[in-house]
Amino acid sequence: MAKLIKTKDWSATPLGPISGWPQSLRTVVSLAQGSNSPISLVWGPGHVQIYNDGYWPICGAKHPVAMGQDFRECWASAFPVIGEAYEIAWTGRSAYLETMRMFLDRYGFLEETWFTFSFSPITDETGQVAGLFHPVTEMTSQMLSERRTLTLRNLTARAGRARSSDEALAFCAEVLAESAFDIPFAACYRIEAGAARFAAGAGLGEAPSACPASVDLAGGDGGPWAIADVARTGTPRQIDDVAALLGVGRVGPYPETPSTAFALPIHQPGSTQPAGVLVAGVSARLRLDEQYRSFLDLAAAAVSTAYTNARAYEQERERAELLAQLDRAKTSFFSNVSHELRTPLTLILGPVEDAIGRPERRLQGPDLEAVHHNAVRLLRLVNSLLDFARIEAGRYQMAFTPVDLATMTADLASSFRSLFDRAGVALKVECPPLPEPIYVEPGQWEKIVLNLVSNAFKFTLTGEVSVTQRWLGDRVELAVQDTGEGIPAAELPRIFERFHRVEGAKGRSFEGTGIGLSLVHELVKLHGGTIDVSSVEGSGTTFRVSIPSGRAHVPAERMAPELAGKGPGAGTSPFVLEAAQWVGGAGTGAGAEEGWVAEDLPTAVPAAVRLSPGVAMARVLVVDDNTDMREYLTRLLSPHWEVMTAPNGESALATIRGESVDLILTDVMMPGLDGVGLLNAVRADARTQGIPVILLSARAGEESVLQGLASGADDYLVKPFSARELIARVATHLEMARLRRQWAAELEQANRELEAFNYSVSHDLRSPLRAIDGFSRELSTEYAEVLDERGRHYLDRVRAAAQRMGLLIDALLSLSRVSRAPVGRSVVDVTEMATAIVTDLRQRAPTRDVDVRIAPGLTARADPQLLRVALENLLGNAWKFTSRREGARIEVGETEKSHRRVFFVRDNGAGFDMAAAARLFAPFQRLHADKEYEGTGIGLATVNRIVTRHGGRIWAEATRDQGATFYFEVGEP
Q1: pTM for the complete prediction?
Q2: What confidence tens digit (pLDDT) does each residue in 209-229 have?
Q3: Which domains are present in the chain?
């Protein structure tokens, strides 16, 4: 720069020739030239710039024109940042700026730079400011490095929280959006199934369409952003026609459109092909140097790491979910199979044990038939399980043979006709002759047809089932259509899953392992065919099985000789026998489905059971969807009690509401309303809640027993059970119920006698109490001057005690009256009644300021007089217990609890400890001392008596010092 200064023609500048420069300028130029630090000098009215060798690189392409140029003109793009400091320095004050971001036009574009610098005034020989001393330190490289390091750190930290690969790419896009000065726009693509799918983007702004949702990787031109090329080669690609790809929209933080971008592979360890592609734009205000290019590679590596970690987590979660699904399937399988095995085992072991206990030791009649039916059912179940296991293991041997499929299918479907007729459901079979034999495995085609037809029969209670088969040239289609309950749309995708059962499905039986349709699905696939299902809930379901015609799909080694004239084989028997249980038996002479009384059958009475006369006359309701089980239980119980039966919970409820029942013996798993649902309905009805309920279930184990008892059952019996144990338990619970009824009657009589005594004594105490109150009042008014202070004190105590006694007697009389008065029902305006009671309370305490809110439109069907007494006590309590509270508040309204409409009275008063809630409604129970709140301890007992007499209930919830809420129900409006 010293040579340049000496050789430059300064006469063309405002400074003129060097010979005319003042000594002060010469000195400062000499000092600057001797320094290694970047220094620029500005001199004179023309703001002429002179700089040293250290400053030369800062000028970039502006050198050497910048030497001797007007400083303001040279660095015009920086003046929005440095202008104020520059002007201050010309006034004689130094200005220092640290790490300032500015945009310099030194390479033909506005470049983002960072500088620390100062402007110091230089005085000449006259003492005036003649120029500025301008030392500079460029911080661009350091600041960009720090910023980019932060971006890489954020990519690792934030994307590390991702729980899926898509979420990881979305988090990365968020970080890149915050790094727009280095990456003005970005797009993340995920490669899968021969295409690159757009996963997340950043900074696209007005040009979102620049990145297509999907890119076909088979395209020969590489597709936009060279995504296909990068996916194929795994190497980065530089893209220079960015403006054309982005279109006219603005992207990034600057008005200039980026001219360059890179498509970078997202690698996954262990794979030669990229898992995705990161498209990253290059800033229009930064030079694409080696450091910038390295940063983009590191950013792509960070995205790769985030994607890999998230994908690993995703795969681990998928494995865990798969294991959980397998575990649920296993649990469901064992649960279902346990139930399916225990029911027939009970019906086999029970009659066999009875036969062993008889002198002739022989099975005959209904017992023999029941054992046979259930042995066949067990055989079918075991065979189905073995078939399924062999198919799963790939060891199922198929032997295809050409058969007259139309005749075979029609015969199989028609084997159910008598059952359909008995059930009142139409069966239509349309299987016209086919032009050629069809190659199938006869035994397995039998299972396909029988499973579908029996399934349709099971879930079609009315209407019809049609079985149609038609020729479609290259295939044959079998359709089994019903007008049954249908399948919920959410269940359709899972209908062929192994062990899956549709919860709450309404059918003729709840029985089933959940492998029938899954087995059909596998058998159809072994025939080279397909099966699909369509259904409308409430309207019916259609299963369509399509298998190919001809023999091209049959391996030569699996061909078998043609079978002539094969009709329904022995395989139909288990299906038909099981389906027969759903319509009242399989030729066992069963009675009507519900409400019938079994005839006496010989069954030994356990010696340990002694039936009292009241128990011997009892009526037992047996509820089970399995006909054999109902008949077996009837044969066991009918020698001792009158037995009625019902096939499901709904039918049982109808029987209970129409006839007197002393004990309910119900299976747990039934279609529609199951055993637990029946139990809940019985316990929810005040008329039936005292009936003993014994649950029968195939679910064994302590947990199942405890769950059954926790649901409110009196007993829980696990299948298989012995006849003697069942009879003993039924007898025990009937005897306990008889004793409870007897005790209740005795207690009711004792209560009536006690209430009569209370009423009589309370009434008789009124006369002497009136005398005490009257004479004491006379003494206090007429003889007050005669009595000394001590005498007046004693007299006041006598009067106070008499008044408290009067209140107690009135409360006892009120309790007796509400207990004895008849309960009449009419529609009561609860809102109006509560408003009147509050008005009365305000008149008695006009100085009290209580915010009372009563919901409009409250009505109840109840006894008006009794309901008023209850509300007076509840509102009086709330009024009393808020008396010491600032901002006292009382609310009366209604809400829903356990799907029932209830009223409530809520206050923000003294409240109470919930540990005392159990004794709150007993007579003479008080939770607060007299000196705190006066009372008799009878008011809430009176309310409880009124609510109970209405068939309702009352309870309270409270927090000490925060208020209480009393809930009660007395009847529907």
Answers
A1: 0.44
A2: 778 888 888 765 556 888 888
A3: 2-138 (3.30.450.20), 144-319 (3.30.450.40), 373-583 (3.30.565.10), 590-820 (3.40.50.2300), 823-969 (3.30.565.10)
